[in-house]
Design goal:
Blueprint: E1 45-57, E2 60-67, E3 76-79, E4 84-90, E5 98-101, H1 107-110, E6 125-130, E7 136-142, E8 159-165, E9 175-189, H2 205-217, E10 227-235, E11 246-248, E12 253-260, E13 267-269, E14 276-281, E15 284-292, E16 295-297, E17 302-308, E18 314-318, H3 322-326, E19 330-335, E20 369-382, E21 385-390, E22 404-406, E23 411-418, E24 424-428, E25 433-438, E26 441-442, E27 447-448, E28 450-453, E29 458-464, E30 471-475, H4 478-481, E31 486-491
Parallel strand pairs: 1-4, 3-8, 9-12, 11-19, 20-23, 22-31
Antiparallel strand pairs: 1-2, 4-6, 5-7, 7-8, 9-10, 12-17, 13-16, 14-15, 14-17, 18-19, 20-21, 23-29, 24-28, 24-30, 25-26, 25-27, 25-29, 30-31
The structure holds copper (II) ion.
Amino acid sequence: MPSKPSLPRRDFLKLSGLVGLAPSLGAFSPSNAQTPPAMGSKADYTLRIARGNIELSPGHMVATTLYNGQFPGPMVRLTEGRRVIVDVYNDTDIPEVAHWHGQMIPSEVDGAIEEGTPVIPPHGMRRIGFVPKPSGFRFLHTHVTAGSDLSRGTYSGQVAPVYIEPKSNLGAYDQEVFLILKEFEPSLSHGGDMDMKFLAGEPSKELKQLGKAADDKNKQHKQKGFEVNYKSFCINGKMLGAGDPIRVKAGERVLFHVLNASAGEIRSLALPGHVFRVVALDGNPVPTPADVPVLWLGTAERVSAIVEMQHPGVWVLGDLDDDDRKHGMGIIVEYAGQRGAPQWEKPKHFQWAYSVFGHSGGAPSAVDETIEMLIVKNNAALAGFNQWTLNGEAFSMASMKPLYTVHQGRRYRLKFRNASDDIHPLHLHRHSFELTRIAGKPTSGVMKDVVMLGGFQEMEFDFVANNPGLTLFHCHQQLHMDYGFMALFKYA
Ligand SMILES: [Cu+2]
């Protein structure tokens, strides 16, 4: 039997400014879900968006925008199907919006301006109410455009984990640990080619040719478009070694909930001498839990994995990238009774393939319609920034014109063709999707809300149009979505 879920790190569960579940909660029935909650009654949670400082390591302060003055923001624990009321105060000088990532809730509270969610004006507030679903590991983050202003959007510290209590548990475990991976102190650069070899699948010749054709069209721009680099890296707001270690006992089973809360980085995580049994992706239980030596997470992806603590010592649970790990991307795991400097060992090469967690040989369901999207990068085309187009169109924040119309109840297959060398963590709001073809293989049963599409690769996922309202699709890299990589779906 699982023990009562607990967070071992007290500083992480600092509930400052967080109002507990009000006893009046039962007064709201889910049938009221669409009506805006009246003021007067007490909110279940209060979220304050404000500038503040966080100390990543002794003396290393970073000024950014935070939720409730802390990083990560407060842990928000909700119950599936039980209506919640949240007051969001914006104490900053710019309009803000808070997105409930991974939940199937109405557009007006989802938290995307493109879907019609009202912004929270500077020094204003908004009360929102919704019925949380589905259960699992979700999160809350800002959804404003940053463009070239790296103090805004997901470059800031506006991130809070959201856990919607599941009806069934994810397996027996002794402790539950949330790990929020995040970078700070961003700057623009022209460098940084990402290692692609970790992701399963082969690049397509045809897509490479399309990419080359786009490059030729933009060849007047000699330099590569801007990328974003970071100076400091942290887990749960502390650089490697600066925070409390995760304290474990030999024989314990630890359930890790890992969130890549980056604005655009792809993260890996390994714990020397241990394997991760992946039980859920993006909060959704997988059909085939499987053991892997390394976790890979695209921007905004979540992995829930159980680790059996059977290798006593003091270890670094860290990113495979030496530079990022040395600049803070890691946390110490300390067995009871063990002493000494934390040890790191580079794991053997391992390829991340989502299909491992799906039904083997499972043929996906038939769909009503297939929508193809060709992704093209126009190198440095927007004042030195890369412009992104979907089927030739860059999303316009001015017109916010929906690109696709869907019919309620129909099942759609989205077929993506990536004519760029970048990995794109593709995200669909307000719906979960099922991976149906990835890295050249059919699969089924893996339900997600973000998935990495490899450079010059193709993939397919299906979704059922079961949550009417404007729905945003975008790449979760802030730099890509701000420069065209978005599309709106509307319901007929
Ligand atoms: Cu992208």
